[in-house]
C-alpha cells in the first residue's frame, strides 16, 4: 500500500540520520522541509523531500496537503490512563482550598482510585480505558506509555497490566507498559511500608516479569510515599527481571531521587517540579531523559519544571501528559505543548522536539517513532490549514489537527 502526501506546506521534524534525542541548544532547532512530499509504503515512511523531487510513481492514494503541515504524532511517555472512575469530588475540594497532600491524607488521592479499581472488573476497566486511549489518539498521540499503580494489591496490579496488554493487542499505536506497584502505601500496610515493599519485590515483580506484562518499573519517590532507599531497593530488584527504571521524582520535594535514577540508569526521571542545582548537574552526560508534566503543574497549581534552566544547562527535556484521575485528568498533548511554551518559556521548536523525538526516547521507541525518518512508522499528524507551526502552541485549547495516521492508515 503506497500513500503519497503532496504539496505539504511544511514537513516538520525531518531527521535524515538516526538521532536518539536532542539536548540543550539543539532543542531549539526543528529541521523542516517546505513545499514537501512524503511517501508511505506499507505503513512506514519510505521517502520524502521537496516537491521538485517528488517521484512520479503509481500509488494507491494521493493526499493533497496544500496549506497544511505534516509532523510525527506526539509521543506521550508518561500516562496512567488505565484507571477506574474519576475524582472530580476531590477537584472540588481542591477548588475550596485543600492541597493535593491534604486530600491524600483524608484517604483521597491514589488510595481512592485504588478502591474504585478494586470494585471494577477487568472488562469494565478495559472498556473505560479504551475510550481514553481512542480519545488521545484522536488528539494526535501516536505512541504512549501506560503505568499500573492504582491497584496496590497483587491481583489489582495484574488487572491493570492485563488491561494494558489487551490494549496493546487491539490497537496499532505502540504502547509501553510500566509496573508502578510503588505508587502509594495501601491502607493494609499503613504502618508497615517495608512489608509492602517486600510484597512488590517478592510477589508482584516475579508475576509481572513471568507474564512479560511490563518493560519498565516506576516508583513514586516522594515524602510520605517511597524514600530514596525504598526506591533503590525496588530498582535493584527490578534489574534482576530486566525491568528498566522510569521514575516519579522531585514532584514536591527534592532529596536524592534524581541521583538514584541516574545511578540505576533510569530511562527517564519524571515530574521535576522542584530541581536543585545538583539535580541538574547529575543529569548532565547521563542517558536519563528528564520529563516535564506541565498538565500536572497546571491542574495542581504547583510550580512548573524549570525547563529554561535545564535546557540552558545543556540538558534534554521531554514533555508528557501524566494522564491520571488525580493530578492531570487530561491526555491532550496539544495542551501540554502549548502550556510548555506559555508557562515554561519553551520555544515552539523546543516543545515540539520535547513532545516527539525526546518523548519517543523516554519510552524506548526512538527507533520507531518521533521523527520523519525513512524506516520509521508513518504515525503522522496532518494539520488544518495554518500559517506556521508556531500556530499549534499559540492557538491553545483549539485543535489544529485535521487527520491522524497510524502506520499510514487514517484513524480520524
Ligand atoms: O504522576 N505523583 C504521583 N502519581 C500521579 C498522580 C496520582 C494521583 O493523584 O492519582 C502523578 O501525578
Ligand atoms: Fe505520573
Overview of this structure, please?
By secondary structure, the chain is α/β, with parallel strands linked by helices. It has 15 helices and 16 strands. It has helices spanning 88-95, 100-105, 110-118, 122-138, 154-170, 193-210, 228-240, 257-263, 277-283, 294-300, 307-312, 333-344, 348-355, 357-361, 391-394, and strands at residues 2-12, 32-41, 44-50, 61-64, 68-72, 74-76, 141-147, 175-182, 216-221, 244-249, 268-271, 289-292, 318-319, 380-385, 401-406, 409-410. Strands 1, 2, 3, 4, 5, 14, 15 and 16 form an 8-stranded mixed β-sheet that branches. An 8-stranded parallel β-sheet has the order 6-7-8-9-10-11-12-13. Helix 4 (122-138) crosses helix 5 (154-170) and helix 12 packs antiparallel against helix 13 (348-355). It is globular and about 70 Å long. Fe (iii) ion is lined by residues 78, 80, 248, 322, 324.
Number of domains: 2
Small molecules (ligands, ions, cofactors) in the structure:
N-(iminomethyl)-L-glutamic acid, fe (iii) ion
- Mean pLDDT score: 97
Largest sheet: 8 strands, mixed
Q: Give me the secondary-structure category.
A: alpha/beta
**Top CATH class of the largest domain:** Alpha Beta
State the helix count: 15
CATH-wise, what's the superfamily of the largest domain? Metal-dependent hydrolases
Q: How many E-type strands?
A: 16
Q: Overall 3D geometry?
A: globular
Looking at the overall shape, the CATH architecture of the largest domain is Alpha-Beta Barrel
Distance between the termini: 19 Å
Question: Key terms for this structure?
Answer:
2 domains; binds N-(iminomethyl)-L-glutamic acid; alpha/beta; 35% helix; Urease, subunit C, domain 1; eight-stranded parallel beta sheet; eight-stranded mixed beta sheet; 16 strands; 412 residues; binds fe (iii) ion; TIM Barrel
